[in-house]
């Protein structure tokens, strides 16, 4: 009964988020929970539209997705360079044209390999937030598609080095950008170079609590994740691990392979 009540509350809370920008959601709904690769409850169904629909039905509205490009420049949801691990085909995505990709299906759902524009269409329809890990040198192309769908205000773009961050901030749009912060010197570099209104700090989960505290004091919203050991422990203690993690890190956005458990554990 308690789980059912939590799910109902999550669904009620999801409604107002549809009209919010990501910036507004961060300001009023901390912490925001992100489904890692669209995974729900630790399943293997990653970068899947079917998996996203299942998560949406349970109150999840923020998804981390991986974007790659095929031979002709078409954009797809895929984490790896190759099709081998998650689909029923093998070989490199970048060596296949759209016709060759038509029969490719995800192993866990047997759905066609999802295209990025399909995810954007779903996000627009459902009022979703997207965290984008854009692989390869396709940043401009991917963000042009985001803008074409009118979703710039719903997007967090991940960057993990200074060159990619510079490219991201050079693009027009009101999407937010996270930068990797592993030290105080990183924090000083990025906070002095880029506008605070669009800047988020991705602090690795195993960083010192002192670094988390320093970033929090800078008033830059913190992004982190709990994949791996933290997720595993939380499934064993009904989410107590998540609550302890957040108490000492004060993240604005947390990415997890168990987003439903994480969200229900942190809800007030």
From TrEMBL:
<dbReference type="GO" id="GO:0008081">
    <property type="term" value="F:phosphoric diester hydrolase activity"/>
</dbReference>
<dbReference type="GO" id="GO:0006629">
    <property type="term" value="P:lipid metabolic process"/>
</dbReference>
<feature type="domain" description="GP-PDE">
    <location>
        <begin position="31"/>
        <end position="266"/>
    </location>
</feature>
<keyword id="KW-0732">Signal</keyword>
<protein>
    <submittedName>
        <fullName>Glycerophosphoryl diester phosphodiesterase family protein</fullName>
    </submittedName>
</protein>
<dbReference type="InterPro" id="IPR017946">
    <property type="entry name" value="PLC-like_Pdiesterase_TIM-brl"/>
</dbReference>
<dbReference type="Pfam" id="PF03009">
    <property type="entry name" value="GDPD"/>
</dbReference>
<feature type="signal peptide">
    <location>
        <begin position="1"/>
        <end position="19"/>
    </location>
</feature>
<dbReference type="InterPro" id="IPR030395">
    <property type="entry name" value="GP_PDE_dom"/>
</dbReference>
């Amino acid at each position: 009964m308690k789980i059912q009540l939590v799910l109902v509350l999550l669904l009620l809370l999801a409604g107002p988020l549809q009209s919010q920008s990501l910036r507004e959601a961060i300001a009023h709904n901390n912490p925001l929970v992100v489904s890692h690769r669209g995974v729900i409850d630790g399943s293997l169904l990653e970068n899947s539209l079917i998996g996203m629909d299942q998560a949406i039905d349970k109150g999840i509205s923020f998804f981390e997705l991986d974007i790659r490009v095929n031979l002709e420049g078409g954009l797809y949801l895929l984490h790896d360079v190759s099709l081998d691990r998650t689909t029923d085909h093998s070989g490199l995505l970048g060596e296949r044209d759209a016709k060759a990709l038509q029969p490719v299906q995800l192993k866990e759902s047997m759905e066609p390999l999802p295209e990025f524009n399909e995810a954007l269409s779903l996000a627009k329809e459902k009022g979703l937030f997207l965290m984008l890990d854009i692989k390869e040198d396709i940043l401009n192309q991917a963000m042009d598609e985001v803008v074409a769908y009118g979703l710039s205000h719903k997007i967090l773009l991940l960057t993990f080095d200074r060159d990619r961050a510079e490219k991201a901030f050079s693009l027009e749009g009101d999407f937010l950008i996270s930068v990797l912060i592993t030290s105080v010197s990183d924090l000083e570099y990025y906070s002095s170079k880029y506008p605070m209104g669009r800047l988020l700090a991705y602090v690795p989960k195993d960083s010192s609590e002192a670094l988390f505290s320093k970033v929090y004091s800078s008033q830059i919203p913190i992004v982190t994740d709990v994949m791996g050991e933290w997720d595993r422990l939380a499934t064993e203690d009904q989410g107590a691990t998540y609550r302890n993690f957040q108490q000492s890190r004060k993240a604005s956005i947390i990415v997890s392979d168990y987003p439903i458990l994480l969200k229900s554990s942190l809800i007030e």
